Amino acid sequence: MFTINKHIVRAGLVLAVAAMAGCTSTPTYPPAPKQTGSYDWNYLIGPGDSVNVFVWRNPEVSTSVTVRPDGKITTPLVEDLPASGKTPTQLARDIEKSLATYIKEPIVTVIVGGFIGPYSEQIRVVGEAAKPQALPYRQKMTMLDLMIAVGGITDFADGNKASIVRFVDGKQRQFQVRLEDLIKDGDISANVDMLPGDILIIPESWF
What is the DSSP string of 39-51? Predict the structure, then answer.
């Protein structure tokens, strides 16, 4: 009986050590670029955004609408026009083309409100953030701006093992960031630029 118990205990210790090793081994990623360089970015309309359509000298077809979940809008004389993923200027030109059937040389201006943007442009924060959420990207947004928006990290976060998932030249890449150094130690060298579509993953600390 004693021999059997000894083997069971030994097997249990081996499994425990293996489990701990698996938990503490974290993939190593290259550090995120501190600066992304010159980035030409224009806001793209997304579902939930409010769109004010002004048609010069034609108030009867000027209107305010909300972009539907399918990314389209309907305005007077224009039905089911795709809006999501376009700049306000691009949408204005598309509305002009549709209205040209009814109005001679229409001049359209589109003013956007709400600023939700398409999902592909939003920044997502998952894991051990105080308030995990998806946020619209803002020009020249940094990691520090993002941390302020989500309320920082929890007491259980392993901030220096956090990573950013980012598409670079059409390929998905992952970069390591040092959130704990940035937030708790005030190390500004740990601050990095964010890009539209970034996903910040904050793992839980095992100790």
Answer: --------TT-EE
195: Cβ contacts below 8 Å, ≥ 6 apart: 36, 39, 137, 166
Amino acid at 124: R
> Among residues 122, 196, 198, 128, which one has the least CA distance to residue 164?
198
Dig out the tokens for 196 from the structure: 């539209």
For 189, the token pair is: 């060298």
Dump pLDDT digits (tens) for 77-107: 999 999 999 999 999 999 999 999 999 999 9
Grade residue 10 by pLDDT with cuts at 50, 70 and 90.
very low
Identify the domain boundary among 113, 143, 167.
Answer: 113
Per the structure, how many domains does the chain have?
2
Angle at 139 between CA 122 and CA 82, to 5 degrees: 50
Instruction: Find out whether 55 and 108 touch, Cβ atoms under 8 Å.
Output: yes
| Residue 45 amino acid letter | I
Range of 80's domain? 50-113
Pairing of strands 199-202, 123-127: parallel
* 178 contacts: CB under 8 Å, gap ≥ 6: 159, 160, 162, 187, 190
Q: Is 70 strand, coil or helix?
A: coil
